[in-house]
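Obj.: predict assembly geometry.
Materials: sequence records (below).
Method: joint structure prediction, all chains together.
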Amino acid sequence: MARGRTRWWWKRETRSVTVTQVTRSLEDSEERPNMAMELNGGSVIAMVGKNCVAIASDLRLGNQALTVATNFEKIFPVSEQLYIGLCGLATDVETLRERFRFLVNMYTIKESRAISPQAFAHLVSSTLYEKRFGPYFIEPVIAGLEPITTTPTDGSAPTTEFRPFIAGADVIGCLNFAKDFIVTGTASDKLFGVAEGLWEPDLGPEDLFETISQTLLNAVDRDAYSGWGAVVHVITPDKVVSRTLKARMD
Amino acid sequence: MPSMEHVAHPQQRAFNPYTENGGTILAIAGADFTVIAGDTRQSEGYSIQTRYAPKVFRLTDRAVLAVNGFAADGNMFVKKVKQRLEWYRHAHAKDMPLRAIARLIQTMLYAQRFFPYYVYNILGGIEDDGTGAVYSFDPVGSYEREACRAAGAAQSLVQPFLDNQIYFKNQQAAPGQTHPSHLPLPDVLSIVIDSFTSATERHIEVGDGLEMYIVLAKGRNTQGMESLHGVQELSSKLDGERVFVVRRELKKD
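Observations (raw structure tokens):
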């Protein structure tokens, strides 16, 4: 009898332990967001102008609150008039930069022509979606000029026009073709607010440069994970102007 | 051996006394006026509870309080502040000065240090010296006098825009010139309206309606308000500081 009682108590203990066990969800949640997107910090923005586009980013690389480098560029040229900004986990920035370089080189060799911004956006999308269940922690921004070649029927030489193109995507490649601006990164909410207030349609290259610069600088100055310098690329049909901005370094 | 099915399992219960009701508030001080504004949407999660729930309240002819966060706490807090101001009027036969209201709000918030009002306060109005003033508070009473402040759901969208447009951050003054420390009333009003239309565009908890309170210093004319339509005066007398409210529609989607 005594032996039986002992066993009864022991079993009850075991049971109560099992019941109070806490199960944690492995999915992202409000309480435990995906830390990879905020680990290194950084922000990118792209804007459409009249016959031009601009893309800009900060220069910070951090390890959480510790700033590791202030010369970490996140925007890379794809072709002469096409740039991509890679925002998120720094190791994936490097990986994807090299992967896109390889894929674009293969495309250029096979097709014997430069990749169009539209095609490149879909290449980015499918590359990200390939890793649907273990994604690269990158939200890309694409900015470029789409060449529109028209061949006149009267036999005269074909003419090429350029249409501004920007696109953004989430970590698994869901594309967003906005006609005003695209923002990503740890300062994205700030960038949305300022850009919505400053941006207007049909800005020329100089006004677009001022608008994107002011938007980026004022947004990153309110974000602890972004800032420490900035670069802006303004893409026009005949040239790309890249400028490094003087920014707050704190 | 007894069956274990009837044995009570340890159970966890939780009651969360707080809710976040969305919305955004904003105040900007001028040289001799202050504008205090807030949207009128009240939401809980993804549901809109009402499209008209005021968040900005006239306290006296020279003080306006905007309250954002948990609406129930906000309404109760405003009620208690108004009660304290009435007691002050009965005791001293005058309205409490703005800086005194600011300190009163601090002590009232800190009194609830271990069960706080879940509310961000922005107090705007006219100081005794006739200058426009904005005081912003955290939920437990830390406060600061500033020229402008945004709070609430779209604070992160609006505050950097204000840094740029009010404080001229990242802007260089023309050679030989300096940035103005205070903007004229029409400029401030258009910045406030632009801030809220931008926030409405990009934040789901902001929208429906906009209420802007304008407090003018004693003796200041209504210059800069001529072009405003639908202005309603709320002042109790015409020879002191004057309070006006202007209402505007915001997008409802």
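Conclusions so far: Chain B touches chain A at residues 1-2, 4, 7, 9-10, 154, 156-161, 163-165, 169-171, 194-195, 198-199, 201-202 (CB under 8 Å).
To do: check interface contacts against the pulldown list.
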